Amino acid sequence: MRYFNAAMSLEVIEIPAEHRDLLNRLSELIPDLEPDSPQSLQRIFGLGLIALTMQITNKARAQDQAELVAELGDLAKSMVEAEGWSPP
After folding, report:
1. What are the CA-CA distances from residue 8 to residues 5, 11, 13, 66 (Å)?
2. Structural domain contains residue 56
3. Is residue 70 part of a domain?
C-alpha cells in the first residue's frame, strides 16, 4: 500500500469557476467555512473522500465484496478518529 504526504499550497490547486461559485455559496451557509482557507479546502476534501468511500462501499456491498467493505470501513474509521469526529 502506498502512502504520501499531500501538503500543497492553495495556489497549486485549480478550482473551476463552477466549483468556486458553489464553494462561495456554501461559505455563506456554513459559518466556519472560509473559501480561501487551505484548512477549509482540506476539510472539504476529507468530506469528499468520505462521500466517495461511501459510494464505493455501497457498490462493493451490493456485489458481495465483504473484504473490500471491511477494508474501506477500517480506513474510514481511522480517518474519522484522526480528525476527532464523532458519529451523530
Report:
1. 9, 8, 8, 35
2. yes
3. no
